[in-house]
Amino acid sequence: MAKCWSLSTTIRNPERNAPFLRVLQEFEGEPFNSNTQANLFKRLIQTKNYMPMGLPKRIKDKYEDPEEFTHEELSEILSLASYENKSIDNIEDIYAMRGRTAVSNLNKMCAAVARDSHGPVRITPLGMEIISGTPDFSNIFLRYFLKWQLPNGVDRGFNDFNIIPFIATMHVVKQVNEMWFSMGNNPVGLSKIEFALFIPTLTNYKDINDTANQLIEFRCNCRKLNGEEQKNYIDTQFIEKVINVFSLQTDDDFEIEKKINTLYDYADSAIRYFRMTNLFYYRGNGRYIDLSPRRSVEIEKLLETFSGESLRFGDIEEYFDYMSNLNMPQLPWENIGDLQAALINLREEATHIQAKIESEFQGQSLHSFTFDTAISGDLTILNNHIKETREIINLLNVDYSILLERSLSNIDTYISEISKLSSRRRSISGQDPLNLEWNVAQSLMALDDAKEIIPHYNVGDDNLPTFTAPGNTPDMECHYIDFSMICEVTLLNGRDQWYNEGQPVMRHLRDFESNNHNENNYCLFLAPSLHRDTVNTFWYSVKYDYEGARQKIIPLTLDQYTKILSIVKNKYFKHSIRVNQRTLKSLFDIVYSKVDEHNNSGDWILSIDNCIDTWEKSYLI
User: Fold this and answer.
1) What's the whole-model pTM score?
2) In what order do the strands lie in the sheet with 288-291?
3) Each residue of 447-469: pLDDT tens digit?
4) Helix 296-305 and helix 336-360: axis angle, to 10°?
5) In 3D, which of 105, 136, 131 has the Cα closest to residue 25?
6) pLDDT of 621 strictly over 60
């Protein structure tokens, strides 16, 4: 039987599940028998959503191309891949087993029904939302976690549990904050250490009060100790916890350390996913996770409505229907009174942020908003006003970041993080694209005197990103006095860079140009390396035209971009020379002007390093 819960075994990033869902959709309506399972596994390989181990380099290189493998290439890959199983002799049965494994998380998420014993394959409403063009992942996560419970009939080994982990965690955090405040302290939520020690092993909602009390006792004991004594106390608490919870031998150091690491891994996963609901946020530079004050009305209503006790279902089909229904459960704050309270709370926060900007950066505010004191009594209007006010708060937070970053105090961090991402191999973590967007956006805020920088990634209430920019928009927009630009970033290096970025980048820039009647519109394109097909595509639009007019696309490698950041830093700290929007524009114009001096894209790209050197020298003047 399981002893703790983990999101890593039940839900994965929906963005990464979407390709698997699209392939599974091809088999919708077919019985999920061994033949379908084997064919699904082969299609995952053929569509380049799965790479078997042990393939030669020439095959691996083809994974960079956007086209599917041909049937002949698929046959070759299957012949080269070594699949053995002690209990299965037939290779088709091994493929079938792999197919079942590939969709196991989709089944657990209730994004699809692909089980031999449950009729034909079908994609649920939740699954259809994930593979739609513009999925609302925050709503997906919120609805999912409000319902995901143990036991549930899908995940095995949890019959002794009685908990909705998301709700129970919220109750613990709220109680800990209230107890900590009553002791004369400012509430801080839970530290990551506290979360790992107490939350994954909370398996029954009836233990919420005891868990909160134990956590406060642990915190108080920690505060009494310093340095090595505190570290030893924490280590001892973790050792005792895993020995008791997992029934380990006291001298089994290997298993003890393994289980401690497991608790930390489970905590990191839970924190990451819970935060995506926007009801949790980071504080203390990411050292603590707390309930979002911006959502206090919604959180209070949830905790009044849900105790954390699991529900009972007649059968697994009833559970599947409940989990996959994006309209369930009904959100308890969807009434006029609570929505009015939420709007008042948001407007107060927006006013507070504006006051903070004016206090710290007198006369430098980039935007100013006033709010109507009247509050509507219409549900639709209230929801629209709440959405608009959240967008205003996000914009004000970006304004604050722009003004704060102009000191260049964090520029070394952004250079380091972008350089690390640039040097990563093809095996990219699910967070890497998001981290790249975040670090580039922050560096642009530090780089110059922008009027407005608008990243299109979603952010939580801690102003940190949760999801990458949607595919139908540029990654970020930047507006200056003399010009405007979009910025597009990618970690793709191969021909799939051209497939995913070539036409979309030019289309995004043209749409941006149509909406911004400034004649000086640019696109800054950043990637670890520039694939020749991508460059050739951009070359034509820059040299000749795209939809009837030339475009100003500035393609740079991430190394070239970090070199520019380093130049900006050195000029400022060594020579007291500050970059401004005209300085940045001059660099773009130098790169753009070189197009007319060359007859092919390769020579143009090779000239960019010299362009940066020329710009650096002129920067001294």
Assistant:
1) 0.74
2) 190-191, 288-291, 280-283
3) 767 888 888 887 776 667 776 76
4) 140
5) 131
6) no
Counting Cα atoms < 13 Å in the Cβ hemisphere of 242 gives: 23
For helices 14-25 and 137-147, angle between their N-to-C axes, nearest 10 degrees: 90
- Pair 113, 107: CB distance under 8 Å: yes
Residue 473 neighbours by CB under 8 Å, 6+ apart: 456, 508
**From the CB of residue 424, how many other CB atoms can be counted at a distance below 10 Å?**
14
User: What pLDDT, on the 0 to 100 scale, is given for residue 15?
Assistant: 60
- Among 478, 448, 410, smallest CA distance to 619 is for 448
User: Which pLDDT score is estimated for 4?
Assistant: 92
Which amino acid would we find at residue 421? L
What residue ranges in 503-546 does DSSP mark as E strands? 521-527
Q: Where are the domains of the chain?
A: 7-133, 165-309, 336-398, 406-619
427 pLDDT above the threshold of 50: no
In this structure, which CATH number among 3.30.70.1350, 3.40.50.2300, 1.10.3660.10, 3.40.91.50 belongs to the domain 406-619?
3.40.91.50
Q: Do residues 155 and 290 touch, judged by C-beta distance below 8 A?
A: no
- Secondary structure (3-state) at 361: coil
| Nearest Cα residue to 443 out of 242, 239, 584, 318 | 584
Q: In this structure, what token pair is assigned to residue 83? A: 């699949």
- Is-contact 13 96, C-beta < 8 A? no
The partner residues of 191 in beta bridges, in order of sequence, read 288
Residue 479 has which token pair?
Answer: 């507006």
Strands 465-467 and 458-459, how do they pair? antiparallel
How far apart are alpha carbons 131 and 582 in whole angstroms? Answer: 42
